[in-house]
Amino acid sequence: MPASSSFHRPALLDGLVDYAGLFPPAALALDAAAAQFVAHRAQPEAWMLGSFVVPIAQTTTLAERLPADLPAHLSVLGSGGGTPEAFLDALDADFRALDALEAAAPHLTAPTLEVKIPTGLPPAELRRLVEYVNSRAAARRRFVFLEVPLSGLDAASRRTHPLDVVLEVEPGGAGVKFRTGGLVADAFPSCADLAVAIGAALDAGVPFKCTAGLHHPVRMHRDEVGTRMHGFLNVFGGAVLRHAGGVDAMDLEAVLADEDAAAWGWTDDGGLRYRNREVSAEDVRRGRRLATGFGSCSFDEPVDDLRALGLLPADGAAAARI
Fold first, then answer.
1. Residue 275: how many other CB atoms lie within 10 Å
2. What does the alpha-carbon distance between residue 39 and residue 127 come to, in Å, rounded to a whole number?
3. Which helix (H) or strand (E) holds 227?
4. How does DSSP classify residue 47?
C-alpha cells in the first residue's frame, strides 16, 4: 500500500457499492438508512458509493429525507409481476412514477430499475418480454436489471435457462442481476454457477450487477450463514480479469474460489493486481462498464475490511483521482 498522500483510488472500487441499508440483514428503517447514506457521502471513501437502493413504494418518502443540496442516484426495486402482462404494465407504471419523482425532486436521479423476471415462462415468451423491456427502457433513457436465477447453469438444458434466453436478446436497455447470497447457506450460488453466469454476461456484452452476500472483499467461511460467502474482489476482480483476457472461463471459477487475501492488490495507476496478473486502470474501467457493482446493506463493512487488508489507507485519507 502506498502512502496515503500518493494513494490513487482503485478503478475497481469506484462507485462499486450500492447502499442497501433498507434490506436484511441490516433492515434499517427509512429514516435511519437515509441518515446513514448522508453520513457515508461525507466519508473520505464516498467515491466507492454508487446508488441508494430503494423499493419504488418508498421513493417519494426517501426524497423528503435526503437533503436537496445532496444530489444522489437511486437504484429502484420495481413492482414486477407474475405474468408478462402484469410485469409489463407494472414496468410502465414504474417508469411513470420515476418520471414524476425526478420532476418533483431534481436532486435525485433514478437511472436504474431492478426487477425479478416472472418465473416459468417458455423461452419464446421470455424473449419477447426482454425485447420489450429493452426497447421501453431505452426509450425512457433508463436501464433495467432483470434478476435471473443462477441454479441449473451446469445442466444440459442450458439453451432454455432464463439467463441464456435473456442474454440472447440484442443488448439494449436491460442487463442482468445475480443474487450472490442471503441469510442462509442455500442462498449462496456455487463458484461454478457464478463463474458461468458472469462469463456468459461478459461474452454477450450485457451489464450485470449483484446483490446480497458480498459484504466482504475476499471469499471466506462465515459462521452467521454457515457457509462460504463470495468476496466482492473475487467477483468483480474476476470479472475484470476475464474481460481483459487475464483469465479464461476455467480460471474464473478458481478466482471466485480463492480465499487468499494477499493475492489482491493495486497497480501504481489504480489498476488491479491479482497474483502474477495485472490489469491497467483503463482496462478495469472498461470491464466495469459491464461488471457494474453490487448492493450491500452495509457500507462500513466493505470499507473496514479493505482498510484491514491494507487495500485502503488506514487513516481514511481521501484518494486522488486517476
1. 14
2. 42
3. strand 227-229
4. G
**Element at 76 (helix H, strand E):** strand 72-77
**Distance (Å, whole) CA 17 – CA 308:** 18
Contact 18, 75 (CB under 8 A): yes
What is the helix (H) or strand (E) element at residue 147, kind and residue range? strand 143-147
Q: Has residue 4 got a pLDDT over 50?
A: no
Q: Is the pTM of this model over 0.85?
A: yes
Question: What are 210-266's pLDDT values in tens digits?
Answer: 999 998 999 999 988 898 999 999 999 999 999 999 787 779 999 999 999 999 999
Q: Kindly indicate the confidence band of residue 8, based on its pLDDT and cuts at 50, 70 and 90.
A: confident
Give the position of cell 502474477: 276
Partners of 278 in the beta sheet? Answer: 273
Give which of 320, 219, 307 is closest to 263, Cα–Cα. Answer: 219
Instruction: Report the alpha-carbon distance of residue 91 to residue 97 in Å, rounded.
Output: 10
Q: Where are the alpha helices (DSSP H) in the chain?
A: 30-41, 59-65, 84-104, 123-140, 162-168, 191-204, 232, 238-243, 249-257, 281-288, 300-308
d(CA 246, CA 265): 15
- Sketch out the chain's domains with CATH numbers: 4-308 (3.20.20.70)
Query: 21: burial class by Cβ within 10 Å (0-12, 13-18, 19+)?
Result: buried
Which three cell numbers mark 133? 423491456
- pLDDT (tens digit per residue) in 284-296: 999 999 999 999 9
**CB neighbours (10 Å) of residue 171?**
14
267 grid coordinates: 497497480
For residue 145, the cross-strand partners are 114, 175
* Pairing mode of beta strands 272-274, 264-266: antiparallel
